[in-house]
Amino acid sequence: MSLLAARDLAVARGGLRALEGVSFQLDPGRALILRGPNGIGKTTLLRTLAGLQKPVSGLIEGEDTAYAGHADGLKPALTARENLDFWRRVFGGPPIAGALAAMALQPLAARPAHALSAGQKRRLGLARLLVTGRRVWLLDEPTVSLDAASVGLFADMLRRHLGQGGAALIATHIDLGLDAEVLDLTPYRASAAPTPRPAGFNEAFG
Ligand SMILES: Nc1ncnc2c1ncn2[C@@H]1O[C@H](COP(=O)(O)OP(=O)(O)OP(=O)(O)O)[C@@H](O)[C@H]1O
Hints:
The protein is of the alpha/beta class. It is 28% helix and 24% strand. Strand 1 and strand 2 (16-26) form a beta hairpin. Helix 2 runs parallel beside helix 4 (118-132). The termini are far apart. Residues 13-14, 18, 36, 38-44 line the site of adenosine-5'-triphosphate. It holds the Pfam family ABC_tran.
């Protein structure tokens, strides 16, 4: 039984179709790397799978997802510990101690999020995945701003998640050293052909 599947999915951004005909299935323990040039629609696809926007057409099966996007989505006035606790309560996931440890955040636990560096904020944003308790992680360039040691911590965290039956869909340009399949989105770029208009359709008054 797959945790997440897309069937003949088409997604759009800014009113324009980006990708069409995307199908895949993500089983427990598996990671799938999204590849493709800048602007092809990796972020758009991840946002659609996360339920943040509707697909143009096609089917999505599986909702046990947690999304980590470009914005860290932290509450600046709350400490690192309070941020994790907030999200744990929202999602009902496991205690925050494991999340603090996974991304080596204990020394920063009492610091407000606004006083963290870009890489420290990113570590906190990624640690948040653990307190969601969700099985499918949707990750958009998760290693941006991370130093080599933090990339290593995150790769370990991801490997443990997969080992526990989780799954991940990851847009990344770097090699995380995972045993993962690759989905190159290049062939699924939506055609630029205009969508057919009904007979008599008037652009100005339709
Ligand atoms: N806020 C926006 N409004 C309108 N169009 C957008 C917006 N953001 C992105 N787009 C367009 O949507 C398309 C898909 O963008 P998307 O960000 O999903 O691509 P991506 O593959 O994630 O790119 P990158 O590798 O650069 O992060 C692109 O053609 C882009 O120009």
